[in-house]
From TrEMBL:
SUPFAM superfamilies: 4Fe-4S ferredoxins. GO terms for molecular function: iron-sulfur cluster binding; metal ion binding. Residues 147-175, 176-203 form the 4Fe-4S ferredoxin-type domain. PROSITE patterns: 4FE4S_FER_1, 4FE4S_FER_2. The keyword Iron applies. It comes from Enterococcus florum. Keywords: Iron, Iron-sulfur, Metal-binding. The lineage of its organism: Bacteria, Bacillati, Bacillota, Bacilli, Lactobacillales. This is Flavodoxin.
């Protein structure tokens, strides 16, 4: 989700896609920031699509994207939501049917891929104002939610949590992670901790951790370094 300070697209493109997870039934804050900054004034594209992944409810995740793009004179031609499973371990214990749901998601993805290959037109559902209010409240609330993180004695001061955080919300103080109150609740620190030493209140101690097996911590760290280089 990292992006340069003033991203822009210039020239002519056959297609442009925006693919992102759903946060609190809306856009992740970093995705919203990226799209607001994105300069499309010198860009021409015949097919623009958006895909959001979600575990429980997708809410306004696609309509928010479409609204931001419309402000730039470019509406979505196609939008799709891909149901997976929720790894928001703060609220949910990972489903025992994780593997089955992954297979189902892969099958659903093939239909989306075929739609994109055929350049199918699919109208984006209208925004639901009540969900927008819920989203804004939750996104704002998430920033200071890091005060509820607990560090157990299992911590080995490896500082992996600091490195995988996409918004530089963690610093190591005396060998322990300290949170800086601009959290986005991506939970990378919780999911990637090799010792399961980071927990949220008393909710996550016994819950299964998960991150995509093809996205190791090194990939997130490299992405964060690129963002820092961009400024």
């Amino acid at each position: 989700m990292s992006c340069p300070v003033c991203p822009s697209l210039t020239g002519t493109y056959e297609s442009i896609g925006f693919i992102y997870p759903t946060y609190f039934q809306g856009l992740p804050r970093q995705a919203e920031r990226f799209i607001r900054q994105l300069d499309l004034s010198q860009c021409r594209c015949e097919y623009v699509y958006g895909i959001t992944t979600f575990g429980e409810l997708s809410g306004n995740a696609l309509s928010q994207l479409n609204g931001l793009l419309c402000q730039k004179g470019q509406a979505l031609h196609y939008s799709a939501k891909l149901k997976m499973f929720s790894n928001y371990v703060v609220m949910y214990d990972l489903s025992r049917k994780l593997e089955q749901k992954t297979i189902q998601a892969d099958q659903a993805l093939q239909h989306i891929v075929e739609d994109l290959r055929m350049k199918t037109i699919k109208q984006t559902r209208r925004n639901i104002p009540l969900l927008d209010r819920y989203y804004r409240w939750q996104i704002q609330r998430a920033q200071t939610s890091d005060r509820h993180y607990q560090i157990s004695q299992a911590c080995v001061s490896c500082n992996l949590c600091e490195k995988v955080c996409p918004v530089n919300n963690i610093e190591m103080h005396d060998g322990q992670p300290a949170f800086l109150n601009h959290c986005e609740q991506c939970l990378a620190c919780v999911q990637y901790c090799p010792e399961k030493a980071i927990n949220f209140k008393e909710k996550t101690q016994k819950r299964r951790r998960y991150h995509h097996p093809e996205i190791p911590a090194a990939t997130l760290i490299q992405s964060n370094r690129q963002r820092q280089e961009w400024g």
